[in-house]
Amino acid sequence: MTQEQLAQKLNVSRQTISSWENNRNLPDLEMVVMIAKTFKLSLDQLILGDPTMTTKLMNDSSEVRKMRINLYVTIIMVLAGMGSFLLFKIIGSSLDGNGVLHEPFFLIPVGYLFLMMGLISGLIYLLKKLRKRN
C-alpha cells in the first residue's frame, strides 16, 4: 500500500504518513486504533511491537493528565477570584460608633491575585495545547 493510499484511508495527508514512517512524528491513540483496523492487527502487535510507539503513548497519557489538572487549576483560580469580589460586595462596609470604617479590603487584592494566577495558568494551558498540536 502506498503512502497516498493509506493517507486516503486514514483521512490524513501523505506527508503525515511519511513523518510517521521516518519517526519525525507519531500518530495519536485514535489514529493508532484506525491503523490497527486498517491492517487487521491487534493493538498489542502494533503498539508493543514498536518501543517508540509504546513510549509515545505513555507520554501522551501523562501529558493529557497534566493538562487536565492545569485546566482545573485555571477554573478554580478564576472562580476564587470572582468569589472574592462577590464576597466583598456581599459583606459590604460599615461605620462603627467612632466613625471607623470596617470593610473586608483584603478581598480585593486576593481577588486580583486569584484572577491573575488563573489567567497565567490558562495561558500556560493554551500554549501547551497549541504546542502539542504542532
From TrEMBL:
Q: Which SUPFAM superfamilies match?
A: lambda repressor-like DNA-binding domains
Instruction: Report what the protein is called.
Output: Transcriptional regulator
Which domain of life, per UniProt? Bacteria
Under InterPro entries, the record lists: Cro/C1-type_HTH, DUF3955, Lambda_DNA-bd_dom_sf
One Gene Ontology molecular-function label: DNA binding
Write out the entry's keywords from A to Z.
DNA-binding, Membrane, Transmembrane, Transmembrane helix
Q: Which PROSITE patterns match?
A: HTH_CROC1
Record's keyword annotation contains Transmembrane helix: yes
Q: Spell out the coiled coil positions from the record.
A: none
Pfam families assigned to the protein according to its UniProt record, in alphabetical order = DUF3955 (PF13127), HTH_3 (PF01381)
Q: The HTH cro/C1-type domain covers which part of the protein?
A: 1-46
TM helices/strands, residue ranges: 71-92, 104-127
Tell me yes or no: is Signal among this UniProt entry's keywords. no
